[in-house]
Amino acid sequence: MSNDQPLVDLFRHHLWANLRLLDSCENLTDAQLDATIHGTYGTIRRTLTHLAGSEESYTARLTGEQFDDAIRAGEVLGLEDLRAHLRRSGEALIQVAGRAGEIGSIRVAWAGSVWQVPPGVILAQAINHATEHRTQINTIITQQGIEPPDIDGWGYVVANIPTEAAG
Questions:
Q1: Per-residue pLDDT tens for 60-77?
Q2: Across-strand partners of 39?
Q3: DSSP-assigned states of every residue in 114-147
Q4: pLDDT tens digits for 86-95?
Q5: pTM here?
Q6: How far apart are CA 108 and CA 105, in angstroms?
Q7: CATH code of the domain covering residue 28
Q8: Distance between CA atoms of 130 and 18, rounded to whole angstroms?
Q9: Which of the residues 27, 42, 115, 123 has the least number of beta carbons within 10 Å of its own beta carbon?
C-alpha cells in the first residue's frame, strides 16, 4: 500500500458521496431543488453547481490544467450535467491524491494575497468545502420532510466494501 492510499480512499468516499447526493436529488421536484433555508449557501441546485465548479477549480490548481468546459461563475447546471462534472473532477482528485507526495507547492492568489501552498491544503479544502455543502443540502432536504441520503464514511463502507464471511 502506498503512503497516499488513505488519501485516495478519502477521495473515493468524496466522489461516492457527491454522486449519491445527486442520486437523491434526482427524486426532487424543481420547486424542491430551488428551495433554500437561512444559513445555507443557497438553493440545492445553486449549491450543487457551486460545489462542482469549486471542485474543478481545485483540480485545476493541483494539475495545472483547466477543463475546457469548466463551470463559469453564476452558471447553474442541471443534474445530469452536474453528474458529469462531479464525476470528472472527483476522478481527477482521486488521481491527484494518489500522487500528492510528488506535487510541489502551488501558487495560490486569493483575496488580494499570494501564497505557496502545499497540495494537502488544497485537498483538505476540497474535502471540507464539499462536506459543508453536502450537509447544507441534506439540511434543506430534511426541512422539506424528506429523508436525506446516508453519505458518511460508514454509509460508504456498507455500500462499497464486502463483509467478511462469518466464521
A1: 999 999 999 999 999 999
A2: none
A3: EEEE-HHHHHHHHHHHHHHHHHHHHHHHHHTT-P
A4: 999 999 999 9
A5: 0.94
A6: 9
A7: 1.20.120.450
A8: 8
A9: 27
